[in-house]
């Protein structure tokens, strides 16, 4: 990464390579905790996290909201020609990737270049930018963690894409996914993501839910089969979300998605890409969603962000909560890490964060939060009684009748006889406050 300006113009002037300077540094444009070469639990931080920049929020998000227009006016959006404008945006993106020092990026198709309503023209545009991205990747060493297609923004997808009641819309979705898969494969993308932004319903009064889910499963099989026929060896991810923009999305949470994958014979090729803010919208903690995926052997990747406690929607703020991320890293570490994916900062700077440096501060803070949490989680696992406390709660299943129960050697009548003979069980504390204090002590 010797050349940190990968285009004809420098978009982030005055900002050089972001480096690790340690916890004592006062430099806001330096990492205080994220040392990519530091080894924790047998792997470097770079290997643990596999950080990726989200093309959409970082270079397409304009700060607009339902009550006001754009506040982020980017110099890479000035040209009128869609392909030339997209090349400027890609120059800026790779300059940022290289300066921030992350090994990966990820994108939706329409993030890379604006689409029209012409399928062939869209394919031509994306192919042109794919060739340009190949050059950028070769020059920078940055790789593609995953690609995906945006099947939710265009008005044709107002009733869903693969679950749309109109076959003509489903066909358009297929064309988009094929092109996005082709681009992902051409760029050496390691994974491919499906997020069903509108794969759900607003009311059951006009919805055949069974038929729509069967269509979704068939669509996923078709996409998987096509990608494999083109030599794609990576993993497919589904990203759960309960609602917003639809009232109820079919990929509601981790457990729902796992059940869907199992029902439609997709478990062999698909894993989960979990998002913090989506977990909270589903009424879960992020730790819960992680544990569900880990227990099923399906934790593929994650989108790192957070919601706002006062707002009930997907605010996609950068992660800064050390307690939340430390508890997440405990599960990720004990679960053996990600299967194919990494940590994508699916987060956006705030509407009033309008300086070019703000994008750097946001990613630096997110990376440092994860790095500090990884260190704390590893210390908890290695130097505290955290694991023993949990193990001791289940000690009654390690021998005697409890062990026989787990081995399937007892009947319901046996349980009745044991209860009658042993009397009322002792009351045993779960010691929740003790463990919460333990977490804080290591942070």
From TrEMBL:
<comment type="similarity">
    <text>Belongs to the xylose isomerase family.</text>
</comment>
<feature type="binding site">
    <location>
        <position position="316"/>
    </location>
    <ligand>
        <name>Mg(2+) 2</name>
    </ligand>
</feature>
<feature type="binding site">
    <location>
        <position position="275"/>
    </location>
    <ligand>
        <name>Mg(2+) 1</name>
    </ligand>
</feature>
<keyword id="KW-0859">Xylose metabolism</keyword>
<dbReference type="InterPro" id="IPR001998">
    <property type="entry name" value="Xylose_isomerase"/>
</dbReference>
<comment type="subunit">
    <text>Homotetramer.</text>
</comment>
<feature type="binding site">
    <location>
        <position position="303"/>
    </location>
    <ligand>
        <name>Mg(2+) 1</name>
    </ligand>
</feature>
<protein>
    <recommendedName>
        <fullName>Xylose isomerase</fullName>
        <ecNumber>5.3.1.5</ecNumber>
    </recommendedName>
</protein>
<keyword id="KW-0963">Cytoplasm</keyword>
<dbReference type="GO" id="GO:0005737">
    <property type="term" value="C:cytoplasm"/>
</dbReference>
<feature type="binding site">
    <location>
        <position position="314"/>
    </location>
    <ligand>
        <name>Mg(2+) 2</name>
    </ligand>
</feature>
<keyword id="KW-0119">Carbohydrate metabolism</keyword>
<feature type="binding site">
    <location>
        <position position="346"/>
    </location>
    <ligand>
        <name>Mg(2+) 1</name>
    </ligand>
</feature>
<dbReference type="InterPro" id="IPR036237">
    <property type="entry name" value="Xyl_isomerase-like_sf"/>
</dbReference>
<keyword id="KW-0479">Metal-binding</keyword>
<feature type="binding site">
    <location>
        <position position="278"/>
    </location>
    <ligand>
        <name>Mg(2+) 2</name>
    </ligand>
</feature>
<feature type="binding site">
    <location>
        <position position="239"/>
    </location>
    <ligand>
        <name>Mg(2+) 1</name>
    </ligand>
</feature>
<dbReference type="GO" id="GO:0000287">
    <property type="term" value="F:magnesium ion binding"/>
</dbReference>
<feature type="binding site">
    <location>
        <position position="275"/>
    </location>
    <ligand>
        <name>Mg(2+) 2</name>
    </ligand>
</feature>
<keyword id="KW-0413">Isomerase</keyword>
<keyword id="KW-0460">Magnesium</keyword>
<feature type="active site">
    <location>
        <position position="108"/>
    </location>
</feature>
<dbReference type="GO" id="GO:0042732">
    <property type="term" value="P:D-xylose metabolic process"/>
</dbReference>
<dbReference type="InterPro" id="IPR013452">
    <property type="entry name" value="Xylose_isom_bac"/>
</dbReference>
<feature type="active site">
    <location>
        <position position="111"/>
    </location>
</feature>
<dbReference type="GO" id="GO:0009045">
    <property type="term" value="F:xylose isomerase activity"/>
</dbReference>
């Amino acid at each position: 990464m010797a050349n940190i300006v990968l285009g004809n113009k420098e978009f982030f002037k005055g900002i050089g390579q972001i480096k690790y300077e340690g916890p004592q540094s006062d430099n806001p444009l330096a990492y205080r905790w994220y040392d990519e070469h530091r080894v924790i639990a047998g792997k470097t931080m770079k290997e643990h996290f596999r950080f990726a920049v989200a093309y959409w929020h970082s270079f397409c998000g304009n700060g607009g909201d339902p009550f006001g227009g754009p506040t982020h006016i980017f110099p890479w959006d000035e040209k009128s020609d869609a392909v030339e404008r997209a090349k400027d945006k890609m120059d800026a993106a790779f300059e940022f990737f290289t300066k921030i020092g992350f090994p990966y990026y990820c994108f939706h198709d329409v993030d890379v270049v604006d689409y029209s309503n012409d399928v062939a023209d869209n394919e031509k545009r994306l192919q042109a930018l794919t060739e340009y991205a190949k050059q950028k990747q070769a020059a920078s060493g940055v790789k593609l963690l995953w690609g995906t297609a945006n099947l939710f923004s265009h008005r044709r997808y107002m009733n869903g894409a693969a679950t749309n009641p109109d076959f003509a819309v489903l066909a358009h979705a297929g064309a988009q996914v094929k092109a996005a898969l082709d681009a992902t494969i051409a760029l050496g993308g390691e994974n491919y993501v499906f997020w069903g932004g509108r794969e759900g319903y607003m009311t059951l009064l006009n919805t055949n839910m069974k038929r729509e889910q069967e269509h979704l499963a068939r669509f996923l099989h078709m996409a998987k089969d096509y990608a494999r026929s083109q030599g794609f060896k990576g993993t497919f991810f589904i990203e759960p979300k309960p609602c917003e923009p639809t009232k109820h999305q079919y990929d509601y949470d981790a457990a729902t998605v796992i059940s869907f994958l199992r029902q439609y014979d997709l478990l062999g090729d698909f894993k989960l890409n979990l998002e913090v803010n989506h977990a909270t919208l589903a009424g879960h903690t992020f730790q819960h969603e992680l544990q569900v995926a880990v227990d099923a052997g399906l934790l593929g990747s994650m989108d790192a962000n957070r919601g706002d406690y006062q707002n009930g929607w997907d605010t996609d703020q950068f992660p800064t909560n050390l307690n939340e991320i430390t508890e997440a890293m405990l599960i990720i570490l004990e679960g053996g890490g990600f299967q194919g994916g990494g940590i994508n900062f699916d987060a956006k700077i705030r509407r009033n964060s309008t300086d070019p440096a703000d994008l750097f501060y946001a990613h630096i803070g997110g990376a440092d939060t994860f790095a500090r949490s990884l260190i704390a989680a590893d210390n908890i696992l290695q130097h505290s009684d955290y694991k023993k406390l949990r193990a001791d709660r289940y000690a009654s299943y390690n021998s005697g009748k409890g062990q026989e129960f787990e081995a399937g050697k007892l009947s319901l009548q046996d349980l009745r006889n044991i209860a009658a003979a042993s009397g009322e069980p002792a009351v045993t504390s779960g010691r929740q406050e003790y463990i919460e204090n333990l977490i804080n002590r290591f942070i």
